[in-house]
């Protein structure tokens, strides 16, 4: 009897183990952490579960979803800290979001925005790294209460050298207006900014200047191999700048393609309606041309040429309005760049012409098929 009980017990334990997927305990812990919004811990548990059972589709889905949620959590915390004036804490949250979800363009954008607000620099080493400042007005720091601002900020806020501006609830004298493109809009001495945000002897970002830019990726890999550096974000400048492009916004490319598709459809319908109406109104003229020996190809050619001329006129007017709108936006919001490139103009022109021709094909075909006698008798 005792032996039989032991056998049954062993069989029961074996069946239980067989019915419990690998990684299930970690998965359950991840679900519990997720219910209390501890997405960092949940992600860690789900990753352990996936490591135990790499082919489990449910684990893969939870890891991807929780990675996104954890990144969003840190982004929200960073925005809140930035609004409270804690720029270092905000930058750390955005960097954490980047390390959790490298595909998040929003984290990169928010980090860039935070760092653009203000930079604490050691002037001498910063100029050795990125080249000397171009002083449009004024000169270097003269004291701890001085701030440098770039020309975009100065134009948008109507600031002049010698004016007083508020930075982190403290007043600073504008010592100089410098050329844009130095990584920030406002510059304080690094020790002053550290004191303001309560981060003595700390920094939120470090730049390394290499002897050969081609070695950037190799250096990044070496940095990531240093023990303890895995929780920090290390990227090459080329990759960092690539994340700042509009194409890296989530869904933006899809949105642009949808807008282009809708524009083509609307253009097709408008041109179709306009040219069909024009053909109906010119039935007698078409009949006269055909009675004088005009071929079907000639009639089609006349309709399509008129369509292309209308399309070109619309393209010119559209480009002019776009450039005028760009000038108005830049004048009103100097810090908001609006780029209108020749490539976009060319693509817009091609799309407009193709849509116009497509919309005019059927009306042109109908015009070419009209009988001269019926056309002349048309009232």
Describe this entry's structure for a reader.
This protein has 16 helices and 6 strands. Strands 1, 2, 3, 4, 5 and 6 form a 6-stranded mixed sheet that branches. It is α/β, with parallel strands linked by helices and 379 residues long. The radius of gyration is 33 Å and the shape is flat. It folds into 3 domains: 2-110, Serine Threonine Protein Phosphatase 5, Tetratricopeptide repeat (Alpha Horseshoe); 116-245, no CATH class; 251-377, no CATH class. Strand 4 and strand 5 (170-178) form a beta hairpin. The chain has helices at 2-19, 24-35, 39-52, 57-83, 87-100, 105-117, 123-130, 151-157, 190-197, 216-225, 237-242, 252-281, 283-291, 296-332, 342-368, 372-377, and strands spanning 119-121, 135-138, 146-150, 164-167, 170-178, 186-189.
Secondary-structure map:
Layout: H1 2-19, H2 24-35, H3 39-52, H4 57-83, H5 87-100, H6 105-117, E1 119-121, H7 123-130, E2 135-138, E3 146-150, H8 151-157, E4 164-167, E5 170-178, E6 186-189, H9 190-197, H10 216-225, H11 237-242, H12 252-281, H13 283-291, H14 296-332, H15 342-368, H16 372-377
Parallel strand pairs: 1-6, 3-5
Antiparallel strand pairs: 2-5, 3-6, 4-5
Helix pairs in contact: 2-3, 3-4, 4-5, 4-6, 5-6, 12-15, 14-15
